[in-house]
Amino acid sequence: MAEKTIKVALIGNPNTGKTSVFNQLTGLKQQVGNYPGITVEKKIGYCRLNETTRATILDLPGTYSLNASSIDENVVIELLLNRKDENFPDVVVVVSEVENLKRNLLLFTQIKDLEIPTILVINMSDRMKLKGIELDIPYLEAQLKTKIALTSSRKNIGIEEIKQRILEYQSLPTAPCLNASSIDPEYFDKLRKAFPNQLVYKLWLVITQDVNFLNLERNEMKSSFTKSHTELRRLQQKETIKRYQFINDTLKVGQTIDRSKAGNFSARLDRILTHKIFGYLIFFVILFGIFQSIFDWSSVPMDFIDEKFAQLATYTATHLPPGEFTNLITEGIIPGIGGILIFIPQIAFLFLFISVLEESGYMSRVVFLMDKIMRRFGLSGKSVVPLISGTACAIPAIMGARNIENWKERLITILVTPFITCSARLPVYAILIALIIPEKHVLGFISLQGLTLMVLYLLGFGIALLCAFILHKVLNLNTKSYFVVEMPGYKIPMAKNVGINVVEKTKSFVFGAGKIILALSVILWFLGSHGPGDEFKNAEKIIEQKVYNSPVPINPSVIPNWTAEYKLEHSYMGIAGKMIEPVIEPLGYDWKIGIAVVSSFAAREVFVGTLATIYKVGDQSEEETTIKEQMRHEVHEDGSPVFNLASGISLLLFYAFAMQCISTLAIVKKETNSWKWPMIQLVFMSGIAYVSALVAYQFLK
After folding, report:
1. How far apart are CA 546 and CA 554, in angstroms?
2. Which residue from 291, 628, 653 is spatially nearest to 434, judged by alpha carbons?
3. CA distance 24 to 27
4. pLDDT band at residue 264, thresholds of 50, 70 and 90?
5. Residue 606 predicted with pLDDT over 90
6. CATH code of the region 4-261
7. How would you classify the pairing of strands 441-442 and 446-447?
8. What per-residue confidence (pLDDT) applies to 143?
9. CA distance 254 to 122
10. Which of 421, 408, 406, 474 is nearest to 452 (CA)?
11. 41 by DSSP, 3-state: which?
12. How many whole angstroms separate alpha carbon 596 and alpha carbon 691?
């Protein structure tokens, strides 16, 4: 029997637990991508409903209503209007939450007017007793003309009921809850007569929203049924009032709230966590704890991965026949991939902490807390969300800035977000800090390495604010905006949600970076293992001659390593490195570091993998050597270490400020629709990085 697939759209207001419901239904059976032509993220999951039926679940961006004010909300409207879209749902599942049912039902009643089979999920039912809430489900189902699933995604209650409701979607009533066209009967009657084959509410959305809906002649509609912007806004307000009147009347009977039973724990906690003094101290302590933990907790698994890759390279070289292919595996692919996989523990811990803060509801308090600071630097409180999410990756963070309506504030946010330390910088920071900062603890619990990492994060945030202030003064755009943020209730983070988020984000980081690193490792291995001219081809003879003609006796056992170093220096990569060495030498870098810096413009995290590949090509010893040991033992011709305090701090500052990410430049171009701003961004950030690295090295050397 052929398997049947039901297409489901999961829709809801932000902070209703929609993502939790999605995770409970799909688990790890998820795919993340972008909608065609736009930078809005799309999540699709798969769920088995019974032996013969499965559901394809599209998790749509959070939206408060179908009166769109952002690109995210436009995505929801365009999907629901266009039945020819391949993702058009057979059934819509609207997720609401029990404490804000009145607000959540506005979106539900609008979707019902589109006459799509719609299920209402009332989530967080485990909080009903705590908040003194009682619901008359049969009455609500009758009034809202739907089927309701009462769930608690936290306690995995009601998930099977949702699946059953989806299976029975064809029996759901599709009639609207109320007659929205009564806000202007004459106008809507004209619409109905002009387009008799279309739903009148669909026509209304096409007229009022900026959506790319191709099934109707939108321009013809605009010209035939034109109204002033003020008049359209007035009608939208009348529609919203009418819907809330219906919702209020429904909830008067269908919902009972005993305020005497409701606790005020959240309010008391908010007074502490958003306090004008203690709020910042608590946030600082939380950050301090996170960065201490990232170094302390991840050291054991990192050392284990590092050692295993060194052993793998040695084992492969020993058991495979000598030749180009073996050299590619042992000197290119294994060191390159090992150079990124070693940092999985630290990246996973970073995403773990971020997920816990978001799941608990604390991140919204941070946004509220930081709004006053942001205002002083010409940013909106909404800018905090992209800046904080920039600690994971600048690309989705920049995309997140599209929710900032004010163009000046949005542009400034886009331009300064790459200064925030992202997870791609973490591998560079981690390896350099481990090399130049001693593994010591002050007062028995403060790790110097963790403290250094925290300072780098704060430095990135500080320079972002400074540049934002400068841009605010330079960009002559007089605009005004308002900041509104919703404070969700505090929750104990769900282990499943946190786990899925950590796995998905880490997997995305590793595979995304892995493709680049693998390709670059092969290219770099080739460039480092081949070269023009007789000096490269006759390297062994030249070194042997130097050893035997040396006035000082030299042990012949050094010939293989000296030959490898000589060949590397005269390879294609060595020649390129020597060409850029005059530019980078004042920063304390040799040509090998220069190659790593240039190659990391593809992606910052490539830096460590590149050095691992270069040092492996230049090392012919049969000993197992980890990436960290290779870098620690690298020396200049005079015997001084390449990675000392001066060069290490110089590199840390360079990567703290430099753009070093082609993908970020591409996203900035797309979001600003111009190459002007990404080019200014690239030159400005590279200039700051070079000057700061130069000053640091010259001062510390």
Report:
1. 10
2. 628
3. 6
4. low
5. no
6. 3.40.50.300
7. antiparallel
8. 92
9. 13
10. 421
11. strand
12. 19
Q: Residue 87's closest CA among 140, 9, 24? A: 9
Angle between helices 676-700 and 662-672 (to 10 degrees): 140
**How many other CB atoms are found less than 10 A from the CB of residue 189?**
12
Alpha helices of 377-424 — where are they, by DSSP H?
Answer: 384-389, 394-400, 407-416
C-alpha span between 558 and 563 (Å, rounded): 8
CB 283 within 8 A of CB 369: yes
Q: What is the pLDDT of residues 133-173, one digit of tens each?
A: 888 999 999 999 999 999 887 788 888 999 999 999 999 98
8 Å CB contact between 237 and 99 = no
Find how far residue 9's CA is from the centre of its chain. 23
Contacts of 276 (CB under 8 A, 6+ apart): none
Task: Give mean pLDDT, residues 467-488.
Answer: 69
Which segment of 112-126, 158-172, 428-442 scores lowest on mean pLDDT?
428-442
Please give the single-letter amino acid code of residue 158: G
Q: Does pLDDT of 625 surpass 60?
A: no
Strongest mean pLDDT among 375-379, 464-468, 489-493? 464-468
186: amino acid identity, one letter: E
Burial of 120 (0-12, 13-18, 19+ CB in 10 A): buried
Distances, alpha carbon 660 to alpha carbons 257, 533, 657, 663, in Å: 55, 33, 9, 9
CB burial readout 392-403, b (16+ within 10 A) else e: bbbbbbbbbbbb
Q: How confident is the model at residue 117 (pLDDT cuts 50, 70, 90)?
A: very high
SS3 of 61-125: CCCCCCCCCCHHHHHHHHHHHCCCCCCCCCEEEEEEEHHHHHHHHHHHHHHHCCCCCEEEEEECH
Q: What proportion of the chain, given as a percentage, has pLDDT over 70?
A: 82
Q: What is the pLDDT of residue 35?
A: 42
User: CB of 657 within 8 A of CB of 610?
Assistant: no
**Domain edges within the chain:** 4-261, 278-474, 532-700
CB 96 within 8 A of CB 123: yes
pLDDT bracket for residue 340 (50, 70, 90): low
Yes or no: say if 506 and 348 are a contact pair by the CB < 8 Å rule: yes
Is 350's pLDDT higher than 50? yes
Tokens of 417: 């977000």
Distance, CA of 420 to CA of 401 (rounded, Å) = 14
List the structure tokens of 699: 């001062």
What string of H, E and C letters represents the secondary structure of 180-232?
HHHHCHHHHHHHHHHCCCCCHHHHHHHHHCCCCCCCCCHHHHHHHCCCCHHHH
For residue 635, list its beta bridge partners.
641
Which single residue is written with the structure tokens 């997140």? 400
The count of C-alpha atoms lying within 13 angstroms of the C-alpha of 489, restricted to the half-sphere facing its C-beta, is 16
Report the distance separating Cα 429 and Cα 419, nearest Å.
14
Query: For residue 500, what pLDDT is reported?
Result: 81
Indicate the average pLDDT of the chain.
79
The answer on pLDDT for 406 being more than 50 is yes
Per-residue model confidence (pLDDT) at position 381: 65
In a 3-state reduction of DSSP, which class is residue 46?
strand
CB 668 within 8 A of CB 414: yes
First vs last Cα of the chain: how many Å apart? Answer: 75
The secondary structure of residue 490, as a DSSP letter, is: P
Q: How far is CA 65 from the centre of its chain?
A: 25
**pLDDT above 80: residue 213:** no
Is the pLDDT assigned to residue 257 strictly greater than 80? Answer: no
Cα Rg of the chain, angstroms: 30
Taking the C-alpha atoms of residue 75 and residue 212, their distance in angstroms, rounded to an integer, is 9
The DSSP secondary-structure symbol of 5 reads E
